[in-house]
Amino acid sequence: MVLFLSTVYNGQNYVAKLRQRPVTTAKGYKQTVQVFGNKPRAMLDIPEFIEEYNLWMCGVDIADQLRSYYNTNRVHRKTWKPLFSFLLDTVVGNSYMLSSYKQPPGERALRQDSHLQFCRDLRDALLHASIRPRQPKTSQKRKTMMEVTWLPVKEHQHVKLWRKQAFCSACARARRTTSTPHRAARKPLADLSENTTRKARSDSNGWKRPYRTPRTLYGCSVCRIPLCTRKECWAEHLAILNSKD
Ligand SMILES: [Zn+2]
Ligand SMILES: [Zn+2]
Questions:
Q1: Extended strands (E) in 130-193
Q2: Gap from CA of 34 to ligand 1 centroid (Å)
Q3: pTM here?
Q4: Interval 2-55: pLDDT, tens
Q5: DSSP structure string for 66-129
Q6: Residue ranges of the PiggyBac transposable element-derived protein domain (predicted)?
Q7: Looking at the CA of 220, which ligand is closest?
Q8: I want to staple 82 with a disulfide (CB 3.0 to 4.6 A). Which of 74, 76, 133, 195 is the partner?
Q9: Looking at residue 237, what DSSP letter applies?
């Protein structure tokens, strides 16, 4: 603080200020009382930075007070996080002091909760500013069996194409389903899931084992149609290609 004040002020500037005569018990009374003489008050030239300090010395306390009202209520276990919270709370407090929410000193406060209202409006404005229009889903529509690219048959390769599984177009067209329903690996000694204990029966109309179209990472390198590793799926793709020739 002293370093900061001595950087801003050179100590050469003085301001005239009406000062009270110190009380008799005050430190350095004998020296200071000579300046006042008999008068209880006197206009004295005091260094500008002393004046500034006297005016604003409670500023830090006000900042602490402002921060204490609506501070970041979070448990911190890392050293830099409370620093961030401190800075955030300080910024919010300072912004409030500079905002029109804060009544100028001397004027009676129109609303007692102007600080709270400021925090609420700030929250709403920040949330509103963060709203982004929903992005359309990026996954491209999977091709059907007929959407082939007419290149020579020998250029079509059955290869691994994707990192996410897609429904096999050939199986979907032929209404083939998974031979074994997909089931997550069971942990040892864990309870059996209902899907395992309840068997699908022909007379049961309540529960049916979910058979689905097989999914695959493979497809045609040219047409980019998902085709699973069953022999008939690739054969059906080649058959459609050959039907054109
Ligand atoms: Zn193809
Ligand atoms: Zn298939």
A1: 158-160, 166-167
A2: 106
A3: 0.36
A4: 555 566 666 677 777 777 777 777 777 777 777 777 777 777 777 777 777 777
A5: HHHHT-------STHHHHHHHHHHHHHHHHHHHSTTSPPTTSPPS-TTHHHHHHHHHHHHHHHH
A6: 33-96
A7: 1
A8: 76
A9: H
